[in-house]
Design goal:
By secondary structure, the protein is mainly α. It has one domain: Arc Repressor Mutant, subunit A (Orthogonal Bundle), CATH 1.10.10. The chain is 64% helix and 7% strand. It contains 7 helices and 3 strands. A 3-stranded antiparallel beta sheet has the order 1-3-2. A hairpin with a 7-residue loop joins strand 2 and strand 3. Helix 4 crosses helix 5. The longest helix is centred in the C-terminal third of the chain and has 25 residues. The radius of gyration is 20 Å and the shape is globular. The chain starts with 6 loop residues before the first helix and ends in a 6-residue tail after the last helix. Keywords: DNA-binding, Transcription, Transcription regulation. This is HTH marR-type domain-containing protein. Pfam families: MarR_2. InterPro entries: HTH_MarR-typ, WH-like_DNA-bd_sf, WH_DNA-bd_sf.
Amino acid sequence: MKKEKSLDEWMTFISAQQKNSITRLHGIFRKQMEMTVLQEMEALGHPDFKIGQLVLLANIKNEGSISNDMAKHAQITKQAMNKVVHELKEKGYIFTEAHPSDRRALMIKFTERGKVFRYDLYCVVKRLRQNYEDVVGVSEMQQFQNTLEKLVNAGMKHLPAH
């Protein structure tokens, strides 16, 4: 029977593992992506954009989307979604109107400025993906995306409903 490691031995072991930990690498990768998107969007004339607003802007359907449905899909509270909606309305990216068949539901739609934003964001993300593909190759990048989708979908099954 092996002797258990002391707490100090565990701390040394854990510290050695930190460099390649999935949590650390994910955090760095996410931050790099966010900074690149923010810088590129600012250069394209969107200096007032915040990464937290992307949860709404990236998921509005062309015909509009229901605020509460988007909150559920984004895994945020209705209150948090309402705050983002308010911010983006003030900046002129979106407008809201009553749902045609459900007066309790709020429809979110793009303004012309919002449509330009969405197009610019699409172009930025496409260039970002191309940069990643240049580093790891198209096949490996597609596998990375497939793996992320599987992990996200598996994790969503365990989240409580809002």
